[in-house]
């Protein structure tokens, strides 16, 4: 596996410092499980993060999101990945993510998105992100999905291409709202990827909820 698209420095540092919401952390931890280069970078980032934390008050840190991920991962992703690497079986879905799904790909309960594409929403302990597996048929575009903010997409099998390049297994695309991209699975195989986005806006008023689908907000 040749990984060409890695975790950005700021994302890795946020992860190392425990300031990422659980949803984003799942994508980062899953890339780390697949990428020895980024595991090495994480060690450095944790040292930098530790240095930064020494200068702050402990109560200034918001540990809840990090701890919920840690509780599920129960140990460092790098250590977990090391163990996964020596297993005889070769699961398509690496460990941190497999724990959320309750198994490898055969455990995934797909729901159709139309045009042959399917998704499986993944439940997390927070509601600021939306985490899903997407399965895109070979040669087909990723279904329209609106997101205003950041989107992390990690390829698990197959590949997709968009204006910014080609993304194969292990590659992580980090797109913000300013990027208009229309990813398309490459023609050779279905593409299965993990997609994390900002959660859609939720309105408390039932009136707004009623008009939401009409206005498309
Ligand atoms: Zn990497």
TrEMBL record:
CDD domains: cupin_ChrR (cd20301). It holds the Pfam family Cupin_7. Residues 104-196 form the ChrR-like cupin domain. NCBIfam families: anti_sig_ChrR (TIGR02451). This is Transcriptional regulator. SUPFAM superfamilies: RmlC-like cupins (SSF51182). It comes from Paradevosia tibetensis.
């Amino acid at each position: 596996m040749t990984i060409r698209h890695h975790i950005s420095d700021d994302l890795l540092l946020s992860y190392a410092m425990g300031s990422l919401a659980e949803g984003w952390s799942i994508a980062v931890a899953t890339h780390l499980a697949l990428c020895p280069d980024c595991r090495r970078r994480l060690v450095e980032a944790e040292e930098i993060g530790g240095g930064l934390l020494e200068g702050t008050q402990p109560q200034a840190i918001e540990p809840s999101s990090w701890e919920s991920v840690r509780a599920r991962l129960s140990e460092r992703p790098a250590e977990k990945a090391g163990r996964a690497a020596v297993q005889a079986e070769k699961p398509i879905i690496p460990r941190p993510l497999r724990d959320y799904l309750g198994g490898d790909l055969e455990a995934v309960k797909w729901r159709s998105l139309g045009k042959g594409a399917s998704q499986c929403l993944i439940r997390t302990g927070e509601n600021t992100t939306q985490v899903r597996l997407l399965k895109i048929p070979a040669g087909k575009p990723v279904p329209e999905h609106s997101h205003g903010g950041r989107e992390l997409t990690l390829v698990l099998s197959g590949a997709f291409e968009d204006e910014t390049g080609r993304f194969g297994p292990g590659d992580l695309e980090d797109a913000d709202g300013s990027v208009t991209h229309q990813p398309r699975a490459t023609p050779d195989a279905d593409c299965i990827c993990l997609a994390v986005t900002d959660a859609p806006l939720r309105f408390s008023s039932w009136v707004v909820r009623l008009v939401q689908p009409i206005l498309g907000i």
